Input
Amino acid sequence: GIQVEQSPPDLILQEGANSTLRCNFSDSVNNLQWFHQNPWGQLINLFYIPSGTKQNGRLSATTVATERYSLLYISSSQTTDSGVYFCAVVMVGYALNFGKGTSLLVTP
Amino acid sequence: SAVISQKPSRDICQRGTSLTIQCQVDSQVTMMFWYRQQPGQSLTLIATANQGSEATYESGFVIDKFPISRPNLTFSTLTVSNMSPEDSSIYLCSVYGQGGNEQFFGPGTRLTVL
Output
């Protein structure tokens, strides 16, 4: 199956800082999603982005499908951005294959 | 999008017992997926449940341990059988939204086995 690698595994930021999270995948994909798992375990959809660039408030994402990577940008981070960010791609059978995630802690 | 509810939201169980988790969706869907998230880990697919057919299990997961029912297009259950402490995890169900491209997740069931 398609391998999904995320970096960095852990990240600590001060409130107001910007960050870039990366997701590399081993083969071409036609479905890539970014999720935020909050401290209560809820998975929140951030972006469906198989290619191109999207923005939603302080968050934006870019997927370069030909080079097999996706980036998630967080600007002006807030403590509520803390949690784990997952990248996931579709497997054969339509389920999602998740990366190991980036654990983000934003401190006041 | 899709609105998904799960019951129970959390439970603490004794080893050797079984727990059935319910997943309810606000629209009819063909495929429902069950995932497990062990402490500090990522999500792993347990099985895909299609209405009217047997669930398809991923390597490492077997029907005797994780029986699944899919009685209609809006509902599914996952049973965790003969539990051990290693089954302590968050169990999540998911479906594709109306557009068919984006997958949405229920709030999860946080299971602790003593």
